[in-house]
Amino acid sequence: MKTADLVALARQAQELAYAPYSQYRVGAALLTTGGQIYTGANIENASYGLTVCAERTAVFKAVLAGERNFQAIALTGSEAGYTNPCGACLQVLAEFSPAIKIITANGKNEIKEYYLSEMLPYVFSIDQDDWCSEAPGASNEEQVLAFNQDNPSRRGK
To answer: How far, in Å, CA of 91 to CA of 25, rounded?
Structure first.
């Protein structure tokens, strides 16, 4: 899947956001390691703490469909700047794929790419062995594949 295509799907999901309070619409498109895509949008609530971000909406849809291994997530927002995931969303992503690629696009569809370890270098984990460490000589993509292969039971596949 091309990055631009994943961003386009996030942009489509953004249109479905329910954001009557902030007017800030966010879309997400989550790519599994098996090639499936799950989209999500932010869903606000009058009790702001009950609002759910687009990233978590996409992850929860994927998990309910039996997916546990994610390769990338693209995010778009209704503002001109880049939309980055909040700490709660980063932690949820880390639960399943701690080396996931995070793609953000601004209003002009200019793209920035990060790995979760760059945005959240010290994830919370019950099992410290689940942390995605910087393996010498291994690219982040290689770390994603190695992590998913080494942890099939926890990831459900």
So the answer is: 21
CA distances from 4 to 24, 118, 141 (A): 22, 21, 18
Q: Catalytic amino acids?
A: 55
Q: Which domain holds residue 94?
A: 3-155
Task: State yes or no: pLDDT of 36 exceeds 50.
Answer: yes
Closest CA to 42 of 65, 63, 62, 21: 21
Q: For the domain that residue 110 is a member of, what is the CATH number?
A: 3.40.140.10
Phi, psi of 89 (to 5 degrees): -70, -40
Strand order through the sheet with 37-41 = 37-41, 26-32, 70-77, 101-105, 111-115
Whole-structure pTM over 0.90, yes or no? no
For the chain, how many structural domains are there in total?
A: 1
